[in-house]
Amino acid sequence: MVRTLKKVKMPPSSIDFLPPRTERTISISQYRPKDTQQTEGTISLPNSRELTLDIIGLSGFDFDFGALDDEDNEVSQAYKGLMVDGTLYPSKFDVVLKSFWKYIPSDILHLVRFLPMKSYMRFRRYTLFMRKFAPEVFRKSESRDDGKDVASVLQRANSAEDPAKRLHPNELYDQISTILLAGHDTTSYTLTWLFWELAKNKSWQAKVREEVMAARNNAAARGDDDLSAADLDRIPILNAVLKESMRVHPIVWYLARIAENDDVIPLAFPVTTKTGKTISAIPIRKGQGIQVSISAYNRMPEIWGEDAHEFNPDRFLGSRGAKQTSVGVFSNLLNFSGGLRACIGWRFSILEQQALAAMLLEKFEFSIPQDSAVNDVKRKPSLVMVPIVEDQPGLSLFLEAKPIQ
């Protein structure tokens, strides 16, 4: 199934992957964080989930979820609280249970979703909703013979496959659920951490805003109403702060893999144990579980310099960057993994981040709130790395947003 989906969903060009109908997508340029509709004030940035949900709906499926218009609609409610309820605070029993999953046959393991526990019940409600909602997305795509959205491409490619190799309709429906879950929360929280860093580093925020406005003027001079993907790629400081924020705050914080063969992994930087022994390679056996820490790699001083734990976009300007290594699909970062298992939507995610960051920085000046009670932001390793403020409900990160006249 992985082979089929990779072949079906990996477009020759991420820009070609965008649907032809873009009026509703473009209308997000009128977006204002909901807490600042009338005046400046404090906003909760995870509210941008509705924005990214609508974008991936339109750009990925040519389907209007309507989350911006109504945050209480069915799709928005299906995702609301999913990260906190589903993965953030597992019970001791759940941790022990999951450690035995690999020993349970798959035809039995799927029954765990019926366990009367909060996390399993929450994900079961989500999957039941998506099993009803995904067919609606596919039915809409059936009328578009040349559609470029994910649902249309999936259906055409699956129909062209050998009947014996075709995916079952339920497997196709599950891909909608996977893409939405993986595609909109990750971008939303990536932007959340970006604006938090720019609110703390006002000089970088001002540099990006000046650069974006200059690019906007250049686009207007040639008769364009908006910035193109090429324009966004040519804004160096904007891209530097995006890369640096992704480096410091990777949303997916580790990769889990299973070794297919016995092997020996050489270490670029040998490790010295407490006993004084130097380890320069790690032997692994077939079937062994491996966790690769994206957070650790992205902050290795040997790779990124002695200031690896600091937010410093200068490292992506000029020739500094990463040292002695080249991994992943984007700027030597592991955020999108690499190789055959690299994130198939990485280019779309970058384009979305560029466009939303440019749009919001043109409209608002962000700063840290004066209220110290909401400034103690902690990074919590849920299914993704999320912001938490003590004594605040759910996932929260608050910033002051002042409209720019």
TrEMBL record:
Belongs to the cytochrome P450 family. InterPro entries: Cyt_P450, Cyt_P450_CS, Cyt_P450_E_grp-IV, Cyt_P450_sf, Cytochrome_P450_monoxygenase. Its cofactor is heme. It comes from the Eukaryota. Pfam families: p450. GO terms for molecular function: heme binding; iron ion binding; monooxygenase activity; oxidoreductase activity, acting on paired donors, with incorporation or reduction of molecular oxygen. Keywords: Heme, Iron, Metal-binding, Monooxygenase, Oxidoreductase. Pathway: Secondary metabolite biosynthesis. PROSITE patterns: CYTOCHROME_P450 (PS00086). The keyword Metal-binding applies. Heme binds at C343. This is Cytochrome P450.
